[in-house]
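Page 47, continued from p. 46.
Same chain as before, 145 aa.
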Amino acid sequence: MSNDICSCSPLRRLTRRMTVIYDQHLQPNELTITQYSLISRIGRSGPIANIVLATDMGMDRSTLSRALKPLIGAGWIETVDLPEDTLLDKRSFALQLSKPGRKKLDEARPNWRRAQDEIDRQLGPKLSRELTEMINDAYAKLQED
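Result:
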């Protein structure tokens, strides 16, 4: 590939377009796709350490903290202490969905599904599958450093 071709710009353009589709569908739930992804991931994991969540989401700790702030403020996510033997460092704690957070996730899931279906329909099943596989493969390779 030529040195003057940027991989980041077209990928960011694609993610911005996909974000618009997800955000439009999640708007009735007053969630963005980033917020939905966080409550969904926390909901699947039960209590999860903030450091583990940041790594799983591909975020640094400060970005994660900023993203969590409104979700904690809304009462959808709560912090809990980690057992002493699982503390990763003195700034680690666990996150879990509250009852209202679980309700919010359950209410938003059908709208997320509609957004996902719209993207899959527009891309077609083959391209949608290949894109996901390619993104996951590229992400894994970039983590190998």
